[in-house]
Amino acid sequence: MAEKPSFPGYDTMARRDTQSWNEPTRQAIDARLSVPREPRFFTVEEWDCADALCQLIIPGVIDPPLVALLDAALHDGDGHGTRTQTVPYRREAWRQGVNALDSCARGSHGKPFAQLGKDDQSALLETIQRGEPTAGQWGAMEPQDFFKRCVLGDIPALFYSLPQAWNEIGFGGPASPRGYVRLELGHRDPWEAAEVGPDGDSDTVERKNRHVV
Amino acid sequence: MWSDALNAPRARDGKAPDVLHQGGWVEMREYRDTEEVDFVIVGTGAGGGTLAARLAEQGFSVVAMDAGGWFRPIEEFASDETAQEMIYWNDHRVTDGANPLTMGGNNSGKAIGGSTVHYAMVALRFRPEWFKSRTLLGYGADWPIDWREMWHWYAEAERQLSIAGPLSYPWGPKRGRYPFRAHELNGAAKLLAEGAQKTGIEWTETPLATLSAPYRDANGTSPPCVYRGFCRFGCSTNAKRSSLTVFIPRALAAGAEVRDLAMVGKIETGPDGRATGVHYHRDGEWRFQKAKNVIVAGYAVETPRLLLNSANDRFPDGLANSSGLVGKNLMTQSNSAVWGRMDTPVRSYKGPPSLAISEHWNYDDNNDFHGGYLWLGQGPMPIEWAGVLTGAKGLWGDALREEMRDYNHMVGVKMVGETLPNEANRVTLADDVDQYGLKVARITFSYGDNDKAMIDHALQQMRASIDAVDASDIFDQPDDNCHLGGTIRMGDDPTTSVVNADGRSWDIPNLWVCDGSLFPTVGGVNPSLTIYALALRMADRIGEMSKRGELYRCRM
Questions:
Q1: ipTM over 0.85 threshold
Q2: pLDDT tens-digit map of B392-417
Q3: B412 located within any domain
Q4: Is the Cβ pair A168, B409 closer than 8 Å?
Q5: In a designed cystine with A79, which of A90, B230, B513, B539 is the match (CB 3.0 to 4.6 A)?
């Protein structure tokens, strides 16, 4: 498999004060990056469990922590609005879900999910993803559906709403009112991320990426 | 701040937001609740907004209501997938069936302008035979309108929306050139074209409701598209031609009143069984607007929900429901895709997502399934792309984060596929209540064998097209759905349809419906242009009926 694309020196936020970001975008991203780092929806125990879960789904150092964004989203609203026969509305689903994860961990290891080792945590999630029985109390909620709809539906969406994630994947980011000019396959606007390889060697690309404004 | 649009109504005290001018306001005529207006319209999308303009322009007194807020795109729309969730209908709903539908950004708007605020602007005509699919093609149900009549209204809708499209369209009967020139193709569209050429099928530039040149009329100006992407999260430059930017300004100029944050909860009927007006929630209280005619334009879930929630002693099964068909025959369009990785960066986030199209399989009848489908070029934003990888591949952890790094290199095509009407797929009322205290919709859907056979066929064909451009790591995204239709079937027979060709209830002659729920079949094309065309036709028909004295206590 080909080596993954890299975009050294690229920082979406460098365009914050250019014509690529309008005021509503600045406000939205500023609010996201300054989200309160404390529970308002979850209890402290639920927060710890959700935090561990977020770090499994998207590993690495992420600022703000995804659990803060999840807590804020659930504090502010009830998500995407639909429930199914097996997964309740988002607030209820998430509260039930993290408590169920803890009950699984306690059932099998005698301690809460957040205190398990990464391998045990991953093994539990894989069990749930495969739809196999767990040692936890899930009530009427179907664990596999909770995992698909809420865990995989919500947590990656929180990460890829962050400029940090856009830098990692070379996404152009917000683009109004300036928009783009070079639409042709392989063509890059000067305010888009340059990639090592297609847009030059590492040094060239890094220099280009310092000027994506 | 956009949140102001949700805190309190903006259209009041004789003025309404002028979305075509920064900070602008326009004068708005207002009606008292006790004033019996000619038409109250529920919903302001492609059906309701268009009707509000065309009925007011003919001199009728019109009040249009929408549960959503009145956003100012050029001042309030962010370039952001998450921040723009406020334009979708995310109120509580229940989904079930074997294939519970995904609701939200693909099919449910909540704003002045309805779903046209977030639509991808793909402006297509039905294949003519689909208007008689039962008679000519052997499936579904016939429409009560002849295709040649629709052809006239399609052209009218394309003109009024300044659709940008190709000089000549490869499929179907001849049509005039599109009013505006087609947009330049982006990388994803170029690859769709190359894939089509190499597999021997036709493709063309997608007719789109976004400007390819400046536009000006009496209400203001709009600039051409700047290819920023994010079209499905609201256009922040007003290049998008929508109900919000085209028909609502016209409605206001013609003397219609448009009420934002006005949730209609019940249609009232009088002793004679006619509709007398609507109960609506605005400014923290329930009010009642008297009207000579009620038009419901809330799309395929909210329209039947309102008719069912309006049940009373005289109509215990809901309004307009003597056929028992209100809410039944819910259809979606299958939205499966095939993706692959190109060595060259594609950067498909630039430009409208669907700049190129192939309707080849909409015009081929030699298959082992009924109905047709098209495919369109794609330009997923990062969160949507993460959803594809988690949904189709179940990825998480380092595997997800690594695979996401190929984002700029990915290319895909996505079908819009016809599903067949089936009475078991339907909208009913659940016991849950929403923030207004109204019973929410239960949306039941399962794909039938024909639908599945079509999806299989489409995946195979799309795979061949992606393979033909030498993409690697090709994979299917089999599960996705988009637009809705059905639930208030129009027809020629009161026992097998809810309304007639004019959207007029067979049971209650001053109750009308105008949105995608009218569709007896959904075809394999995006529905918005057909809804606009039906609304233009319906406004014209109402004008004619009025002149002939065929409207209830309402004559021009």
A1: yes
A2: 999 999 999 999 999 999 999 999 99
A3: yes
A4: no
A5: A90
